[in-house]
Amino acid sequence: xxxxxxxxxxxxxxxxxxxxxxxxxxxxxxxxxxxxxxxxxxxxxxxxxxxxxxxxxxxxxxxxxxxxxxxxxxxxxxxxxxxxxxxxxxxxxxxxxxxxxxxxxxxxxxxxxxxxxxxxxxxxxxxxxxxxxxxxxxx
Length: 139
Description:
Blueprint: H1 3-9, E1 16-23, H2 28-31, H3 35-44, E2 49-56, E3 63-71, H4 74-83, H5 85-88, E4 92-100, E5 104-105, E6 108-109, H6 121-130
């Protein structure tokens, strides 16, 4: 098996997505009534969420938005964002959704992660790893 075929066979089948959300400035009064519904919504979808949390202003108190890493297909991500009680409350200013790979996770560097798409610089790293010449963290 060539290195390229081996890499293709290890490509992640389930896409992970990063969701980066910026809320409208001064949206706290709209946020407060939706907090409990939002928390229930996140709890109900927790099985598909690898990580989630709010982002804050430098004061550590003012919520500015949030970040999520989810294991969903693109249609599920779009629905997840659209049906979130905070979205329905009208506080979202901007939402950026992008495919995401787990290169470093839980304080461990995961050299064996292969990004979806055509081979690139990672091919060399993976070939070295397979040959026992690269570092690899357990995952």
